[in-house]
Predict the 3D structure of the following.
Amino acid sequence: MSNLTIWEISSFLQLPIMWALFRKFGKVDVLRPMLAGAIVGCFIEFSTEPLWAYHYRINVYKDVPLAVVLGWGFLLTLVTQASEVLYRWVVDRVGSSREWYRVVCDVCAGVAVALPLEAIGLKNGIWDYNYVALQWTWGTLPLIEMPYEALMGYALLMLIGPTYVRYWSRPLRACGGHLCVARTRWCLEINSLRGGIGSVSAERSAVVQG
């Protein structure tokens, strides 16, 4: 059995293992975050397929492996959980909370989680960069030889990726004939707007009848 086969099998096993560990020790169900992260992975891998060359066997689109798409669920779930821990630590230290604290924590946690995983993938030949198409010229990080452009890409992704995962991690319910996230400000604002429109329509009907 080749090293790549072992890595591919472990890539599938890491998901149920992570779910079980968070369920048992953290009392958190991370199934929704993993699914949301995999959706992000689908978008990234399908849209950037010509930029990388993967070497796994089970693929879902050209040479895009299923394990890599699901691996984004693993990565973004770890990022959101690590970011929460970092955010609470910062708030406890500072004694106050700011909206931008969470964004900074997302970026820091994202880079801390993504760098080792990226290094593992590169060092073990799981994927290669298509430098001809990428035209990256910033150089590489010492030791792990990861391009600085890839690091910047991860940092930019963490500005929106964890927020998306958190949004879809909340329970969904029917709301006014539509599916929305429970207890969200957006849902409340839409309901208030509908109530206002309904009141105006009722007043107009009363005036016409009068």
